[in-house]
């Protein structure tokens, strides 16, 4: 014989009691039953653009020396939308390979910045990698901190033969004023130079011989740590004509002389600017090639060199980048109470 069904009033009371008990139990056990993972506070983020093979144990690209210094024991953190995982150590130093070119690198940077696993509210950034340099201002193996970042591609261009002889064949496009150039914090650049200018740099015999092909005093220098404008362009330009145009653009925008050609920094900085500003952004590049040939070779010969005719010094330059950059990274982390609120006053 079945039991009689409870009255509607009694049924409502039973449901209310059950709901209250469940809510009480959930409140009592919630924090321990479903713990939340606290976001990693990023103190310094190191961005590289490519790695040749593995992160360690083979020929080093832009990331390997950083990885071996800071993240050999770190677990990769997958980030949807980013090219490669992020690695972090216990000191709050994180890094990743973002990809080459403006779109590739900036899309990875945005995915990482917006991921809730990380807290970038107080982070400093080191955008690092290899680059080219004009022989009038730099040399193979040098390492350079950016004072300005200038986008080479944003504007109008036309063929030189369609212009009056000697006049520029580039004109800025209106509407790009806010993101075609970035002046990086002079106080932060000054700190970077103070901490790293005397770093002993590696050199190679092949690079020393290659420099002697150029008559410029700057090109013949041994590797050094310097500053200047970094010119960002997806166009991998070569030759004295394109170099002259790049210098024209830098001066047109009120920046320092360009000393580095690279493909990512201005785009990455724009992404950082829209989320956290640019006060803590650094761009660090090592020169592995000249952006034009010597007087005895054509631009095409320089762009596509015969076997044995390359600059040399690549392995030494990627090591130099980390040697210089890690001095700044280590100082910021070791003195975090003074740096977390912003760049300290010079001393």
From TrEMBL:
Residues 1-27 form the signal peptide. Gene3D superfamilies: Nucleoside phosphorylase domain (3.40.50.1580). The keyword Signal applies. Keywords: Signal. PANTHER family: PURINE NUCLEOSIDE PERMEASE C285.05-RELATED. This is Purine nucleoside permease. It comes from Variovorax humicola.
């Amino acid at each position: 014989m079945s039991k009689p069904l409870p009255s509607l009033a009694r049924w409502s009371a039973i449901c209310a009691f059950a709901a209250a008990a469940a809510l009480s139990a959930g409140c009592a056990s919630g924090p321990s039953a479903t713990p939340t993972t606290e976001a990693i506070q990023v103190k310094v983020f190191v961005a590289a653009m490519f790695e040749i093979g593995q992160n360690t144990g083979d020929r080093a690209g832009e990331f390997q020396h950083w990885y071996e210094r800071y993240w050999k024991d770190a677990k990769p953190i997958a980030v949807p939308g980013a090219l490669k995982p992020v690695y972090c150590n216990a000191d709050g130093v994180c890094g990743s390979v973002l990809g080459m070119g403006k779109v590739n690198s900036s899309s990875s940077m945005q995915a990482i910045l917006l991921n809730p696993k990380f807290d970038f509210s107080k982070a400093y950034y080191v955008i690092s990698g290899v680059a080219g340099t004009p022989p009038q201002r730099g040399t193979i193996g040098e390492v350079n901190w950016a004072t300005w970042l200038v986008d080479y591609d944003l504007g109008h261009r036309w063929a030189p033969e369609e212009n009056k002889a000697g006049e520029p064949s580039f004109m800025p496009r209106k509407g790009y004023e806010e993101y075609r150039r970035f002046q990086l914090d002079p106080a932060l650049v000054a700190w970077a130079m103070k901490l790293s200018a005397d770093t002993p740099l590696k050199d190679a015999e092949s690079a020393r011989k290659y420099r002697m092909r150029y008559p410029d005093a700057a090109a013949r220098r041994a590797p050094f740590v310097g500053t200047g404008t970094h010119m960002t362009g997806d166009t991998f330009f070569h030759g004295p004509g394109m170099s002259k145009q790049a210098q024209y653009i830098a001066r047109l925008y009120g920046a320092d002389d360009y000393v580095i050609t690279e493909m990512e920094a201005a785009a990455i900085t724009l992404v950082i600017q829209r989320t956290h500003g640019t006060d803590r952004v650094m761009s660090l590049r090592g020169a592995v090639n000249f952006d034009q040939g010597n007087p005895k070779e054509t631009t095409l010969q320089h762009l596509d060199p015969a076997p044995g005719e390359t600059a040399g010094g690549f392995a030494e330059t990627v090591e130099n980048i980390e040697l210089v950059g890690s001095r700044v990274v280590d100082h910021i982390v070791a003195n975090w109470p003074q740096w977390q609120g912003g760049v300290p006053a010079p001393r």
